[in-house]
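Weekly puzzle thread! Below is a chain. First person to post its structure in token form gets bragging rights.
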Amino acid sequence: MKRVHVFVSGRVQGVFFRAYTQKEAYKLGLKGWVRNLPDGRVEAIFEGEDLAVEKMIRWCHQGSPGAIVTKVEVIEEPYKGEFSTFEIRY
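Winning reply:
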């Protein structure tokens, strides 16, 4: 099992990035959350099977249909298993 903390930069707010992220995370069976940051980035935590987390990271490089991703920062963290779902935070 794996946990990553991700920061996505570019045109990632106002393009339904969080909603598409949640949909993709559900599809991959991941838990965690996603939210917008005041500086224009999107922040997320993904927890789940190693391969599913890797697929989610790859998806973040593309993002939602209207997104233009310029940078994806990935910080690996110890797996905690603290989430029961994947939510959009406000």
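Puzzle host: Confirmed. Bonus trivia for everyone else. The chain has one domain: 2-79.
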